[in-house]
Amino acid sequence: MDAIVSTWALNTAAAAGCNSFTTYDTPSHDRTPLMQGMPGAQVDDFPEYILQPSADVSAPQMPAGFELPPLKAHIFRFSPEALASLKAAAAAFSTHDALCAFIWRHMTLARRVPGAPASAPAAGNDDSSALAFAVNIRGRTSPPLPPTYLGNASMLSMTSRLSVSTLTTDTGLIQAAGAIRKSLKALSSPSRVPLTIGLLSSRPDATDFKLAYNAFLGPDVIATSWADLRIYQSDWGSLGTVQSFRTPGEGADGVITVFPRLKDGGLEVTVALEVGAMGRLLEDEQFNKVAQLWG
């Protein structure tokens, strides 16, 4: 995405006569490293997938009288100081790990039915939760894909399932951050990408493998991060530079979206939840000590 935005900005500036247009970059279209998988993969080694052939799956039926609950998204700002404090409190390897662990934990708390005991399940009638997030694999293929590769070079990383009681204890933040780092380390193995490609290629229909998370009105959370998208550094010629990054509002639940890093080093994050859970998140004093409601 960074390559798309930077090329877009350069060509917009060129159209205004500020510089020359970008040239065709042949390596950016070479997807050879994504075409050859490694055989021998077992689905049990990939927590992000389950084997569920389409022929065996009937269309989900909503209960009679079911009505989709209202959904709500808010933007929260995390200052550089808050991010540093979170990283220390989570004993985390990275700010990303700490931030996602913190929000995942508090979304799980917010999804609990009011008055339920600490061990009670969150949304989806499940007593456990997992965090799934998209990971850029351009540098994880062999040979690496060029940073300017325009295709969808990403894979899903998914944590092990943590019990709701674990996530909501005083040590929940540390354990959540540790689970995130463990899942990322597994994806960093040199064989992980070719084994994943091999797994998906092992069936005549790759869609027999379904993603294993259940975030929408379920117990899990899905996250994506654009923190390293250099949108605020791009020069758009006569249009100047980007002052604020936003996405269209839409109904979602169990979603974390980290926006491009601000010039002061802070981060804006969209959190989407069912409206009742969102109300409880907004009343969470521990969450509000760190996250500033921004929009």
TrEMBL record:
GO terms for molecular function: transferase activity. Pfam families: Transferase. Keywords: Transferase. It comes from the Eukaryota. InterPro entries: CAT-like_dom_sf (IPR023213), Sec_Metabolite_Acyltrans (IPR051283). This is Uncharacterized protein. It comes from Cylindrodendrum hubeiense.
